[in-house]
Design goal:
555 residues, alpha/beta, Metallo-beta-lactamase, Chain A, Rossmann fold, Ubiquitin-like (UB roll), 3 domains, 8-stranded mixed beta sheet, 15 helices, globular
């Protein structure tokens, strides 16, 4: 054997989201997943957070294939942006399960990327990609057609688990292919690159099929209209809501663009079966008897523009929440979304509706395996090396320690981070020199590495507002020739500070007079002096640091 196998995570380590991993052998590359993250509250004005594509942009000609484990945004959402970065000289082949390919194709169409080489894989199917043989292994998750990938090269087999759970009674009757995982273990797995999301939860995850009966029980106790919110991609959950509604003689309305789109794709592929005549359009919701209707809506994470959030704020064009409604949250908040979800719930209560969450009834099942399932994966595959993935640093550490308790040599367990490659050759495995791996922000229509100063300014504006100071000076001697104009927006407690604006004008006049005495004539220096003097004065008076923008006009 010759050569070095490099496994380079560009996202998903030290975080939950933007999963993306580069596998490289003999100079050729396969990319596993192309995910994104949603912004944190301090990333003001940012719409999406992507992995840094620099490494792949420079190596675009070496990419043989992209494999997608499943269709969740944290695994496929960055694909349109990546393809724009690497597509100048042709695109690599992209593989995934049928539902994954259908959802990705819809996403690419929205981005006007129509001519993309997308290929559906069946469980157990194998394709060649340069020095790699890639096999799709059926897994169970909270979305159909989820795969792990076994990537074989001359050195051995790398198993990328994707997101998984060992659900023995999945809604579609297709559990993870435990037999094939065991066969791979007997054949020899060089590296297990595994999901760590629920390593901190003991035991086994609840079966998805256990949710349906509890939804039906919850629905049976509701006299009025029922609004269920869940992930739009959770096709199995939608099916169980439909089944529960049908058992109680209720019609169903789909609200939210992504919900309607995904259900249409699910119906076309046979994952969702809705009886003829059961669907009601969103426009008919308010005209339909409340006790005969279930609304399935987007917005389980409190997203600002989602259907449920708009309902909670009385801003939805078709659904108005009121007394007697019950809103069922058939999902748990993603870490970081708790505040938005709680605000949405509180608004729903304010409108007089009731709320049922997974705390009140077992109406949600996670799609990620718990500690015993992670142990089972290691025992089935018997890997030589283990590299925990898909988790924050706490979970990566817990997954590594779990592997060691199962007899994996601690020297063969690697707690990595984004940008640090694991290099494996005939001599063994080690962490290599870091590559560039950060984040790319999507802000409106712009994509790029937004400067820290831009985010700092946005935080300052959101916290303390802005003062704009317009000063008019003589071109001859730099003296002030008109009263300064003071404009402020979003500055708290200004109205309570008697005479503050006049005092700021006096500060401006004094600053300009001092600059004139010192014969400072450069506009940039005048503005710098004004900024410092006004900012200092405002802080002394208000104990706040609003943004100060000085504008100097010469006449």
């Amino acid at each position: 054997m010759s050569g070095t196998l490099r496994v380079l995570p560009l996202g998903g380590l030290g975080e939950i989201g933007k999963n993306m991993t580069v596998l490289e052998y003999e100079g050729r590359i396969v990319v596993a997943d192309t995910g994104l993250m949603f912004p944190t509250p301090d990333q003001l004005g940012i719409d999406l957070v992507l992995p840094d594509f620099s490494y792949l942009r420079e190596r675009a000609a070496d990419i043989e294939a992209i494999v997608l484990t499943h269709a969740h945004e944290d695994h496929v959402g960055a694909l349109p942006f990546l393809l724009r970065e690497i597509g100048e000289d042709g695109l690599p082949e992209i593989y995934g399960g049928a539902l994954t390919v259908a959802m990705v194709r819809s996403k690419l169409d929205e981005h006007r990327l129509g001519d993309v080489p997308l290929y559906e894989l069946e469980p157990g199917e194998e394709v060649e990609a340069g020095p790699f043989a890639i096999e799709a292994v059926k897994m169970a998750h909270s979305i159909p057609d989820a795969f792990a990938y076994a990537l074989r090269c001359e050195l051995g087999t790398v198993l990328i688990t994707g997101d998984y759970k060992f659900d023995q009674t999945p809604v579609d009757g297709e559990p993870a292919d435990v037999a094939r995982l065991a066969e791979l273990g007997r054949e020899g797995v060089l590296l297990l690159f595994g999901d760590s999301t629920n390593v901190d939860r003991p035991g086994m995850a609840l079966s998805e099929s256990s949710v349906g009966p509890h939804l039906e029980e919850a629905f049976a106790r509701c006299d009025g209209r029922i609004v269920v919110t869940s992930f739009a991609s959770n096709i199995h959950r939608v099916q169980q809501v439909v089944d529960a509604a049908a058992s109680l003689g209720r019609k169903v309305a789909l609200v939210g663009r992504s919900m309607r789109k995904n259900v249409n794709i699910g119906q076309r592929l046979g994952h969702i079966h809705i009886p003829e005549g059961m669907l009601v359009s969103a426009r008919e919701v308010e005209d339909f008897p409340d006790h005969k209707l279930v609304v399935i809506s987007t917005g389980s994470q409190g997203e600002p523009l989602s259907a449920l959030r708009r309902m909670a704020h009385g801003d939805h064009p078709h659904v108005t929440l009121h007394d007697g409604d019950t809103v069922v949250f058939s999902a748990t908040p993603i870490p970081g979304n708790e505040r938005a979800v709680n605000e949405t719930i509180d608004r729903i209560y304010q409108l007089g509706a009731d709320v049922i969450t997974p705390r009140d009834a077992p109406i949600h099942a996670t799609g990620h395996g718990c500690a015993e399932e992670l142990k089972l994966m290691i025992n089935l595959t018997q890997p030589r090396y283990v590299m925990p993935a898909h988790g924050d640093f706490k979970r990566l550490r817990m997954h590594a320690e779990l592997a060691e308790t199962l007899g994996i040599d601690p020297r063969n367990v690697f707690r990595g981070e984004n940008g640090v490659p694991l290099e494996i050759d005939s001599r063994g495995a080690r962490l290599g020199e870091p590559e560039q791996a950060g984040v790319i922000f999507v802000d409106g229509m712009e994509v790029g590495d937004i400067e820290d100063v831009a985010l700092r300014d946005r935080r300052m504006l959101s916290a303390d507002g802005i003062f704009i100071v317009v000063a008019t000076i003589s071109e001859q001697d730099g003296s002030s020739v008109a009263p300064p104009e003071i404009i402020f927006r979003g500055v708290p407690f200004v109205d309570d500070a008697d005479g503050l604006i006049e005092e700021i004008r006096d500060t401006v006049e004094e600053s300009l007079a001092r600059s004139a005495d010192e014969e400072v004539r450069e506009i940039s220096l005048l503005q710098a002096h004004l900024h410092d003097d006004v900012a200092k004065f405002v802080y002394e008076r208000l104990r706040r640091r609003p943004m100060v923008l000085p504008v100097v006009v010469e006449v």
